[in-house]
Write a structure and sequence with these properties.
Blueprint (H helix, E strand, L loop, with lengths): L6 H9 L4 H11 L8 H11 L4 H8 L3 H9 L6 H11 L3 H10 L10 H11 L4 H10 L7
Length: 145
């Protein structure tokens, strides 16, 4: 797989693909198996990259331990708020959080959304879950749960 191209560049290549043969060549060169795009696969990769343990992230997330492990092993699919909670608990960047949301087919954080703008601010400023929820509550927005 060729990782040198951005998603936009790949869309341009696809736009200029006009036959089944060239589509097959594109798929062989630029795509990965669906299971490698899954939330749990990406989250595990990020935990390893940041030298974080699942137990520490679960503790900081306040999620039920069994439920969190089901998310980690792929037997349950996380919702948007759970992904954000885990991202904050792991101290992930906004870019990493957006990638996890995308992998789980959940909506990315949107800067024009009042609630999302607060969450983005909290992620960018590395606030923990309690501080994030306090800020959301202070602004009369739904907390992360």
């Amino acid at each position: 797989m060729n990782n040198d191209k951005t998603t936009g560049e790949l869309l341009d290549v696809l736009h200029n693909t006009h036959s089944a043969t060239s589509l097959k060549a594109y798929r062989e060169q630029h795509t990965v198996p669906e299971d490698t795009l899954a939330f749990n696969t990406e989250f595990s990769r990020l935990l390893e990259y940041h030298h974080l343990s699942k137990a520490d992230v679960i503790r900081r997330s306040s999620l039920d331990r069994n439920y969190a492990y089901q998310l980690f092993n792929g037997t349950r699919a996380p919702g948007r708020d759970k992904i954000i909670i885990l991202s904050i608990a792991a101290g992930l960047s906004l870019k990493e959080t957006q990638r996890l949301l995308t992998r789980a087919s959940e909506g990315i954080l949107y800067a024009r959304s009042s609630r999302d703008s607060i969450i983005i601010y909290c992620i960018e400023h590395r606030l923990n879950l309690i501080s994030t929820n306090e800020m959301l509550e202070d602004e009369d927005e739904e907390i992360l749960k």
